[in-house]
């Protein structure tokens, strides 16, 4: 999905550069051009999180708001969509952290531990936060493999799309995914 028609890909790159040069109209045209793809990324990402409480539209809007606020310099459409995947990841993780905070009784009276009720496992929100923390740790060991996992897990990118975004062969993406999954499984095991 990253590899749009050549005309769209060129138009997107041109709009990115115009926007970076201060053209406000280019920003609006860019958002219209990429909205469907950003929403698709959000949908793919949420599909991997069984108990997601956000809609793809909400996630896409929040990711785009963060993207616009960041106002980073994007080299091309691939870099732009990589930043979209990062923004999507941060929205999902922040949402999970907020829900975990609410579950832990934010604003309620503090009970002594001996009087506290038994708490169930952390669930899906805890898993999202743990995966995010593990990806941050993996990035310290191997940044590229962390990017591959991020694009796959939070961005919903296919192996081919990851290869195109990071300028890697599909075979290299497969190797990185196998290694990263094994590394993450080990990091996430109790």
From TrEMBL:
Residues annotated as signal peptide: none
Gene Ontology MF terms in the entry: sigma factor activity
Cited NCBIfam families: Sig-70_X6, sigma70-ECF
InterPro entries, sorted: HTH_Sigma70_ECF-like, RNA_pol_sigma-70-like, RNA_pol_sigma-70_dom, RNA_pol_sigma70_ECF-like, RNA_pol_sigma_r2, RNA_pol_sigma_r3/r4-like, WH-like_DNA-bd_sf
Keyword GTP-binding: no
Gene Ontology biological process: DNA-templated transcription initiation
Ranges of residues in domain RNA polymerase sigma-70 ECF-like HTH: 12-188
Organism: Denitratimonas tolerans
Domain of life, per lineage: Bacteria
Protein's UniProt name: ECF-type sigma factor
Entry's family note: Belongs to the sigma-70 factor family. ECF subfamily.
Lineage: Bacteria, Pseudomonadati, Pseudomonadota, Gammaproteobacteria, Lysobacterales
Keywords of the record: Sigma factor, Transcription, Transcription regulation
Gene3D superfamilies: Winged helix-like DNA-binding domain superfamily/Winged helix DNA-binding domain (1.10.10.10)
């Amino acid at each position: 999905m990253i590899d749009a028609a050549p005309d769209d890909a060129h138009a997107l790159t041109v709009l990115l550069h115009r926007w970076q040069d201060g053209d406000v109209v280019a920003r609006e045209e860019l958002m219209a051009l990429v909205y469907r793809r950003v929403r698709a990324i959000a949908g793919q990402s949420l599909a991997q999180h069984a108990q997601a409480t956000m809609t793809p539209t909400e996630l896409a809007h929040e990711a785009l708001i963060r993207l616009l606020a960041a106002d980073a310099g994007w080299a091309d459409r691939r870099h732009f969509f990589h930043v979209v995947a990062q923004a999507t990841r941060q929205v999902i993780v922040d949402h999970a952290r907020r829900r975990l905070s609410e579950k832990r009784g934010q604003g309620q009276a503090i009970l002594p531990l001996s009087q506290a009720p038994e708490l169930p496992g952390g669930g899906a929100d805890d898993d999202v936060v743990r995966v995010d923390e593990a990806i941050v740790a993996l990035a310290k060991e191997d940044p590229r493999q962390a990017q591959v996992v991020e694009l796959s897990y939070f961005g919903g990118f296919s192996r081919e799309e990851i290869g195109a975004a990071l300028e890697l062969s599909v075979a290299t993406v497969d190797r990185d995914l196998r290694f990263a999954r094994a590394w993450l499984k080990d990091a996430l095991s109790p």
